[in-house]
Amino acid sequence: MRKTALVTGITGQDGSYLAEFLLEKGYTVHGIIRRSSSFNTARIDHIFDKIQLHYGDLVDSSNLVSVIEKVRPDEVYNLGAQSHVKVSFEMPEYTAQTDAVGTLRLLEAIRTVGLAKSTRLYQASTSELYGLVQEIPQKETTPFYPRSPYAVAKLYGYWIIVNYREAYGMFAGNGILFNHESPRRGGTFVTKKITSSVARMIAGKQKRLVLGNLDSKRDWGHAKDYVRAMWMMLQQEKPDDFVISTSRQYSVRDFCSLCFEMVGKKVSWRGEGLNEEGVDDATGEVLVEVSEAYFRPTEVETLLGDCTKAKEELGWVPEISFKDLVHEMLEFDFAQFGLTLPTDAMDVVKRSDQYC
């Protein structure tokens, strides 16, 4: 029998990849999108005629009940959120309403229409829960220490999922996803900002790349791998929570260096803190500079996941390497300017080095 899935946040990076994945699995796919005065469906335009969309919002309880009642999904993937950490400091109340109470509203909508025992719910949790990390690497049992309104809101979302699972016997689980990127990543996120800026610089449209904390270390994977893990979580006999990560870590500085190397520019770093600069070895031109404007009020310095549980219990492993991810993002951003990556970029991908 064909399954039906409902995806909140279907127009986002993860939502679009998940929709593709579910269609390939033979699902009927529904998505919730927010009303906008301009088109915001670019990531799903290629599958627009294969999915069914409903206007809605995680801050509107009656709307969620109506959509759940109409669709009666076998699986719900809650990917909708205000997901930008720095923006959450400027919009803390909206972030809480969407990311925290929005999760509660979705759980209650499922219960209200009588699907608590039949519908399975995946909650998009986040490595930002670990914040000021209490151990390295972070696993499912690592204590949380959120460091932003976004992370605090997601902490509520995490625990309300656990509570409803235990209180009402609902099949609901948290995917504690570490950073995951792709060519579809939003332009304000640091990885996309770097790859798109490098492309703009090569195209002669931008002079320098301006960033915040270059020392921040993250565990970066590919969104395609991570949506596969989401689906696998809902196919298990019992609901549970899983860390999804690559178990490898690189700094923002590392990401920059690799991007520039793939386009034929070797970067050396000089100075410290706000005075640090990335300089083109060949020309002495400053390519990267640091601005205090891009620092968070409370920084998360290091995130590194231990995905042993997901590997052992789900059989999930990441398939796309860090360098393949960076190459794919650059290739896409270059194409936006009618450019192609140098052939040497693939040599960088294939060689053995600190990024493997």
Automatic annotation (TrEMBL):
Gene Ontology BP annotations:
'de novo' GDP-L-fucose biosynthetic process
UniProt-recorded name of the protein:
GDP-mannose 4,6-dehydratase
Q: Write out the entry's keywords from A to Z.
A: Lyase
User: Which enzyme class, named as a word?
Assistant: lyase
What is its cofactor? NADP(+)
Q: Which InterPro entries match?
A: GDP_Man_deHydtase, NAD(P)-bd_dom, NAD(P)-bd_dom_sf
Q: Which family does it belong to?
A: Belongs to the NAD(P)-dependent epimerase/dehydratase family. GDP-mannose 4,6-dehydratase subfamily.
Q: What is its EC number?
A: 4.2.1.47
Q: Which residues form the signal peptide?
A: none
Residues covered by the NAD(P)-binding domain: 6-329
List, in alphabetical order, the Gene Ontology terms for molecular function in this entry.
GDP-mannose 4,6-dehydratase activity
Q: Which Pfam families match?
A: GDP_Man_Dehyd (PF16363)
PANTHER family given in the database record: GDP-MANNOSE 4,6 DEHYDRATASE, GDP-MANNOSE 4,6-DEHYDRATASE
